[in-house]
Amino acid sequence: MSTLTALKPRPFIFMRHVVTIELVLAKAEDLKMLVGNDIDGKPIYKRRVGMIYWLKSSIRNEFEQAPRILTENDNPEQIKEWLDHNMIYIAKNSF
């Protein structure tokens, strides 16, 4: 089945922009933030909600095309497994 662009070319050429982001392997401390201390002085950590990360397949050795965002609904066991298998990457510099 053909598409409209195959039947009639577009009248304008749209510029395609490419962005390059340097990624580094994430550590557990990258995905959490200190929110305080308990009565005994032990640090209390909370998940860094809204953090953008990329997942790399351990089988195909390729990154997913779309980044992911860390949310409260993410399964902590799954995140830990990905960290243990060196599958989570984050941007080296903030943007």
Report on the structure:
The relative contact order is 0.23. It is elongated, with a radius of gyration of 20 Å. The protein has two helices and six strands, in the order αβββββαβ. 14% of the residues lie in helices and 25% in strands. The model has no long low-confidence stretch (mean pLDDT 87). The chain has one domain (12-91). It is α+β, with helices and mostly antiparallel strands and 95 residues long.
Share of residues in helices: 10-25%
Straight-line distance between termini: 41 Å
Question: How many distinct beta strands?
Answer: 6
Radius of gyration in whole Å, from Cα? Answer: 20 Å
Instruction: Describe the largest sheet.
Output: 4 strands, antiparallel
User: Overall 3D geometry?
Assistant: elongated
- Into how many domains do the coordinates divide? 1
Q: What structural category do the secondary elements indicate?
A: alpha+beta
Would you identify the regions where 5 or more consecutive residues have pLDDT less than 50?
A: none
Number of helices: 2
Strand content: 25-35%
The strands making up the biggest β-sheet line up spatially as: 1-6-4-5
User: Secondary-structure element order, as H and E?
Assistant: HEEEEEHE
Mean pLDDT: 87
